[in-house]
Design a protein that fits this description.
43% of the residues lie in helices and 5% in strands. The protein is built from two helices and two strands; from the N terminus they run E-E-H-H. A two-stranded antiparallel ribbon has the order 1-2. Strand 1 and strand 2 form a beta hairpin.
């Protein structure tokens, strides 16, 4: 185990390995044989993301309509609708 200076031991980077395990691995001391630095990816809730994007698109459309009303009053060109 390696202390990363955070007061905790990080098993992701190092661990104590019994000599028997090193022998089983043909005395190969490659770190990846004994520890994995890979991290699991965060699961994404696609339905929640879709709902959030749909809500944002609705808010953008409403804001664009309000903005266009002001532009129309000022006689300026309107924005395109999203």
């Amino acid at each position: 185990m390696v202390n990363q200076g955070r007061g905790e031991w990080e098993g992701r980077y190092a661990r104590r390995v019994p000599i028997a395990e090193i022998e089983e691995n043909g005395y190969n001391l490659n770190i990846s044989r004994y520890v994995s630095t890979a991290q699991a990816e965060e699961e994404i809730d696609l339905q929640a993301v879709h709902k959030e994007l749909t809500t944002l698109e609705d808010q953008i459309a409403e804001a664009t309509q309000r903005h266009n009303a002001f532009l129309q009053e000022l006689g300026l060109p309107l924005l395109g609708t999203p």
